[in-house]
Design a protein that fits this description.
By secondary structure, the chain is an alpha+beta fold. The chain has 6 helices and 11 strands.
Length: 210
């Protein structure tokens, strides 16, 4: 990863204390950075524990959809976690949609200080050709797929991933039919992006709920 970074001081001064989570370093990985056949990302969870509901103290809770429905998976700090390709997954209060990737994803949660939730270090293989990922929404009551937008990252690249995420959330929120379950009729909550700075008042309220 080091060739991807630029520093304004001699390498000898930082070699023994290289901190990927230091603000000016982590910012270089706020999007996705390719390194060989892999992609790296550092995601700061810019929301405090006091701002969310039912989040277990000391754990980063992740949700997945499997054969039995929605299940919770603890994200133990400083332990590697794998999300298999094709598995719908999301991080409550940080990801306002279900993410479905054609690639396996490795997550390494790092706790923050005080009331902060800290960081996720994300590693996955670089998508190729028609490989990509989806922004999807499932009914919170009956787990029926209500809306999905696929992004062909293998062809389009990851440089526009966050724009695609923003467009997908806008599309979902912009039509009440996208949020209404065709099976049970439940009106599902609004979606939101990872970046809390993009929240409207309504999206901020939705982030606190799910």
């Amino acid at each position: 990863m080091l060739p991807e970074l630029a520093i304004d001081m001699p390498i000898e001064k930082v070699l023994d204390d290289w901190d990927l989570l230091e603000a000016k370093v982590a910012a270089k990985f706020s999007s996705f950075r390719e390194a060989g056949q892999n992609i790296f990302g550092i995601r700061r969870r810019a929301i405090a524990r006091a701002e969310v509901i039912d989040l277990k103290k000391g754990k980063f809770e992740s949700l997945q959809i499997g054969p039995t429905g929605i299940i919770g998976e603890p994200r133990t700090p400083m332990h590697m976690h794998i999300t298999a390709a094709g598995t719908p997954h999301r991080i409550p209060h940080s990801l306002g949609y279900w993410h479905i990737n054609d690639m396996d994803e490795l997550y390494f949660p790092v706790p923050g200080e005080g009331d902060e939730l800290g960081y996720f270090i994300v590693i996955m293989q670089t998508p190729r050709d028609n490989e990509g990922e989806s922004f999807a929404w499932y009914c919170e009551r009956c787990v029926t797929l209500v809306h999905e937008i696929h992004y062909r990252s293998g062809i389009l690249g990851l440089k526009d991933f966050w724009r695609a995420e923003d467009n997908a959330v806008r599309d979902f929120n912009g039509d009440v039919r996208h949020r209404t379950c065709p099976e049970c009729g439940h009106l599902n909550p609004l979606g939101y992006t990872w970046n809390v700075a993009k929240d409207t008042d309504e999206q901020r309220a939705a982030r606190a709920l799910w």
